[in-house]
Amino acid sequence: MGIPTTQFPMIELSRRQDGSNDISAFARDVAEGLRQPRKTLPSRYFYDGTGSRLFQQIMELPEYYLTRSELEVLTQHKYEMAQLFSRRGFFHLIDLGAGDALKTRILLQGLSGQQKEFDYVPVDISGDAMRQLSDNMRQQLPQLQVEAVVGEYFQALEWLQENKPGRKVVLFLGSNIGNFKPDESINFLRSIRSYLSPGDQLLMGVDLRKDPATILRAYNDASGVTAAFNLNLLHRINRELDANFKVDQFSHHAMYNPQEGVMRSFLVSKAEQEVYIQKAGLTVHFDSWEAIHTENSCKYTIPQVEEMGRQCGFRPETVFYDNRQGFADVLFSID
Ligand code: AVJ
Question: Which UniProt keywords apply (predicted)?
């Protein structure tokens, strides 16, 4: 008794049905990545409690222009976006990876300023984040209908398909698409498309090609927050998988390839060493200066983004830029 619950309904989708839990999925992915001749770890595991806090700090770094640029795009174009979303009447605004919804709040202002008919469906893997967001929204925008969904993106889209008929506008902000390899982003967008219908829309944030020095600084900041964010992945493996990484024996290295438009982040072993990861049942050997690839952050040209959308069944409708044309939110429609 006594625990106040949110007045908003919140849907918590169940975990995988195959009997595996989160830890064993994490252990499996870590083991698979570290057994490769070129070692890798999936970037989605950056975001435990500490990692999420470090990412919040990254977004405030002077070098990390992405968040400020997208806030500018949304602030300058929110009314036009609101207009385009609501041309066909009521819709569900589905926010994939909503987090604290800092950016979406701007759009919500644009929409409520024009009295548009919609409800808000934030989707996130973090139950804590969705509870907090629901509570904040109830206080700050009491008129707004909010139904948070806790789960993975496709799980959530499937739930929506069955339980919330009606037009959908999907938000995929923050250049999160950039973490995928090219073939993975095509698969991802095709899967999104498979849950949508003619009349639905997708607004996707993408970081654009620009001076390589600017990009490199954003992923190799002077105060070392990005290094800490990258290294936290090893702390997380130590904590959750009972491993013995000596984290100070690894360093953060970021490099940008301007021909591919890909920023890559690595953790480099400063010495020859062995690491035991108990819950993955694995001993890993590192040569000195051997690296683990931990993240890709893709930078795009607009024709490239438009073509990617077309290949996945979306029609590019409008491109919204920031003042420097370094970041864009691209609106796609389905005919
Ligand atoms: C949250 C995936 C958009 O790639 O720019 C920030 C994550 N990594 N600094 C990005 C990140 C290093 C970020 N995304």
Answer: Methyltransferase, Transferase
